Amino acid sequence: MSDFVSITIDDRQLQATLRNLERAGGDLTPAMRKISQTLLKITEDNLEAEGRPKWAPLAESTKLARLGGKKAFKKNGEFKASAQRQLSNFRILQHSGQLASSVTPDYDSTQAVLGSNKVYAAIQHFGGEAGRGGSVELPARPYFPMTADGELQPEAREEVLDTVLRHLKSAAGV
């Protein structure tokens, strides 16, 4: 008769952890809420940085329109001091602040999204023809955290993955 060694493994904790992970993977609402807020913050950062990578500068015609046209000049053709100060403070896509304040996050258990209710939001992001008969070509100034190919920009991708990992680690009790 040979001697047998019997080992009993108590895996109740592992089973509970796996059940928690399964529940966390089934309801991603908390993670999606955090992801939507992260995407909003990155959008705000993109607007503040005037693009990552940098956007095309404002057209001279846009600058002049913001300054009030001919009223911005002295009789000798130079800018008035007040116009010069204004010119140095111009922010791309932030003239009134309405576009930035219109960006809102939303989420549910399967997705996190950003949107804007401004009719000009898409043309500012993607660029394209605007004005009467498409007489003006606006350059793309992507402020949402996505590349031209529709991928998340690197900062956003890292943050989103980190958020999902934190969500799962929390569910696992790690």
Main attributes of the structure:
mainly alpha; 2 domains; two-stranded antiparallel sheet; two-stranded antiparallel ribbon; 7 helices
- Counting helices, strands and paired strands, the structural category is mainly alpha
Please report the total strand number as a whole number: 4
Largest beta sheet, briefly?
A: 2 strands, antiparallel
Helix content: 40-55%
The SSE order reads: HHHHHEEHEEH
On the 0-100 scale, what is the average pLDDT?
85
Radius of gyration: 26 Å
How many domains is the backbone divided into?
2
In DSSP terms (H or I, runs of 4 or more residues), the helix count works out at 7
Termini gap: 45 Å
Q: What would you call the shape?
A: elongated
- Tell me the strand order in the biggest sheet: 1-2
Uncertain stretches of 5 or more adjacent residues: none
Strand content: 5-15%
